Amino acid sequence: ETGDLLKVFEGHRGLLRQLAYDSHSNSLISLGVDGELRSWNLTSYACLQTIRPTSNADKISSVYFSPHTSSLVTTTRRLALWQHPRKTATDEVLSAQLLAPNGHRYPLVGVLYSYQFYLVVSGDESGSLCVWDVRTGTQVFRFEHGSRLTSMELDSTGRKLITGGIDGSVCLWNFSSGEKLKTVSSSDASVTEVAGLAHVQLAKLSYFVSVGR
């Protein structure tokens, strides 16, 4: 409310890539560009756990926290689901469950979770998108954006997926079935890449906003 600096968290050895907030335990999850993952208690400001990659194949590229299931999804070339154990367990903050051994052969651009369908959708740089059932860890199906993938986002209902490509193309999907609903491209020839996407709901109108380069 005042804008005052409360605390500086120190521990990462390089730049940060992403942050996620765990409302279930009031903790902050930070991901470094080196793939190091840290969990911080926002009451005591203590670092609860540090997870470092043992190889390039284990280097985490993105994280997503679902407040509906109190679980964290991390991506390398595979997906891992991290769930909190019971509060009586104090030694381990997170316990990992591998969702699937294969699926992507290229670095992941992002991962999104739809709690309505209990599905995770992941996309890699080649444009491949995979849909996973988080209850079984199985891959439901996969589909292709059509060019190198640079951005992805769900709408507020968790039912529609929008993807952006390096060629400026934007695709709208019913991702629970893999059906492509629409493809649009920018009329501005100087826009060559979709750098970011966001869903905006204004009254009864729904918009996707894209940022280009």
From TrEMBL:
User: Has keyword Repeat?
Assistant: yes
Signal sequence range? none
Keywords assigned by UniProt?
Repeat, WD repeat
The record's section on Pfam families has: WD40
The cross-references to InterPro entries, in alphabetical order and at most eight, read: WD-EF-hand_domain, WD40/YVTN_repeat-like_dom_sf, WD40_repeat_CS, WD40_repeat_dom_sf, WD40_rpt
Source organism superkingdom? Eukaryota
Q: Which PROSITE patterns does UniProt cross-reference here?
A: WD_REPEATS_1, WD_REPEATS_2, WD_REPEATS_REGION
Annotated transmembrane regions? none
Q: Where does the record place its WD repeats?
A: 9-50, 101-142, 142-183
Q: Does the keyword Cell cycle apply?
A: no
Task: From the Swiss-Prot or TrEMBL record, give the protein name.
Answer: Guanine nucleotide-binding protein subunit beta-like protein
